[in-house]
């Protein structure tokens, strides 16, 4: 992850985050001065931000809403206090309601962002200033430290050309913490088509098969929140293995960008896994990002140990081939 240090100083009422990026200052600055780029990383994984207002001038304001996987919403507002491109800007960050009015009992923080060149790229230092120790403790208890780390982990892909970042690297698995895993795969094909391939039963049966030797025997899709889905697979011919399947419910559907579903193995009791699928297109290629939330570390490690990533890579390779023939 790009974050190298987080320091909370209760004496000076500050929280300082240091992050290093393999990109020049001007490129990192552009990511923070363009709301469309900010939307790709400002919220932590599972909580993408949407900027609904943007006046990038001293005294101007920006407003954003972070959208959680279960329909939760959290909104904030920036008032730009200083802008010194491309090395520094400062904002007053405030929790607000959907109408942009500050929320009582939630602390505001003055945030200073500085960007300095290094031998390998850029060092960004973000310093948040608070009015009291209680305010610092409140945002820490709300998960701001971990949220910042996870949000910054998404910036590398924004700073690079999409193909430079992901082409030829196959299916990549990142353990973000004890319960969250991020899986990414670049597919050569437009986002609309990749979305269809994830929700059209006819297309799904052609690629979502895992290793060779398996077939999809049941494919009931969920295309609206509240609908349930059910997928089943079985070995073909001499392939060794037992039939299995997954089922769950769609919690959020934002075609063709995002779908959040629960998932559990058919016939199994216990808590569900949460799957958050995001699709981003650039120059005819689509980055598939799956954020998976497990109930605990043991479940995470058990599922990853099944060879899930290898099966996904086989399916994604097949998806790419099938997309080119649709």
Characterise the protein shown here:
It is elongated and about 70 Å long. The chain starts with a strand and ends with a helix. The chain has 326 residues and is α+β, with helices and mostly antiparallel strands. It folds into 2 domains: 3-154, Alpha-D-Glucose-1,6-Bisphosphate, Chain A, domain 4; 163-323, 2-Layer Sandwich (Alpha-D-Glucose-1,6-Bisphosphate, Chain A, domain 4). It contains 10 helices and 16 strands. The mean pLDDT is 94.
CATH class of the largest domain: Alpha Beta
Hey, roughly how much beta strand do the residues contain?
35-45%
Predict the CATH topology of the largest domain: Alpha-D-Glucose-1,6-Bisphosphate, Chain A, domain 4
Largest sheet: 8 strands, antiparallel
Number of domains: 2
The H/E string reads EEHHEEEEEEHHHHEEHHEEEEEEHH
Oligomer: single chain
Gyration radius over CA: 21 Å
In the sheet with the most strands, the strands line up as 1-2-8-7-6-5-4-3
Query: What is the H level of CATH, i.e. the homologous superfamily of the largest domain?
Result: START domain
Rounded mean pLDDT is 94
Annotated CATH architecture of the largest domain: 2-Layer Sandwich
Class by SSE composition: alpha+beta
Total number of beta strands: 16
Share of helical residues: 10-25%
From the N-terminal CA to the C-terminal CA, the straight-line distance is: 37 Å
């Amino acid at each position: 992850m790009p974050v190298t240090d987080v320091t909370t100083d209760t004496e000076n009422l500050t929280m300082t985050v240091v992050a290093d990026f393999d990109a020049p200052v001007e490129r990192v600055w552009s990511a923070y001065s363009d709301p469309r780029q900010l939307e790709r990383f400002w919220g932590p994984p599972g909580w993408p931000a949407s900027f609904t207002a943007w006046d990038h001038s001293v005294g101007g304001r920006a407003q954003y809403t972070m959208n959680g996987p279960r329909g939760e919403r959290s909104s904030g507002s920036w008032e730009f206090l200083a802008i010194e491109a491309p090395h520094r800007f400062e904002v007053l960050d405030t929790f607000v309601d959907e109408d942009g009015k500050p929320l009582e009992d939630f602390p505001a923080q003055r945030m200073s962002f500085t960007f300095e060149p290094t031998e390998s790229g850029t060092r960004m230092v973000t310093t948040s200033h608070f009015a009291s120790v209680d305010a610092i403790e409140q945002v820490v208890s709300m998960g701001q430290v971990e949220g910042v780390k996870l949000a910054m982990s998404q910036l590398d892909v924004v700073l690079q050309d999409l193909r430079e970042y992901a082409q030829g690297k196959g299916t990549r698995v990142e353990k973000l913490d004890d319960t969250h895993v991020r899986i990414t795969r670049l597919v050569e094909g437009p986002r609309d088509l990749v979305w269809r391939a994830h929700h059209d039963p006819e297309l799904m049966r052609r690629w979502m098969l895992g290793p060779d030797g398996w077939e999809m025997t049941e494919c009931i899709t969920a295309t609206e929140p509240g609908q349930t889905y059910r997928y089943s697979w079985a070995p073909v011919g001499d392939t060794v293995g037992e039939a299995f399947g997954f089922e769950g419910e769609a919690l959020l559907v934002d075609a063709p960008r995002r779908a959040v579903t629960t998932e559990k193995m058919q016939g199994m009791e216990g808590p569900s896994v949460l799957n958050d699928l995001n699709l981003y297109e650039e120059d005819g290629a689509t980055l598939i990002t799956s954020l998976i939330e497990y109930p605990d570390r043991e479940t995470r490690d058990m599922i990853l140990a099944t060879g899930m990533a290898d099966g996904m890579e086989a399916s994604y390779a097949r998806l790419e081939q099938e997309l080119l023939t649709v």
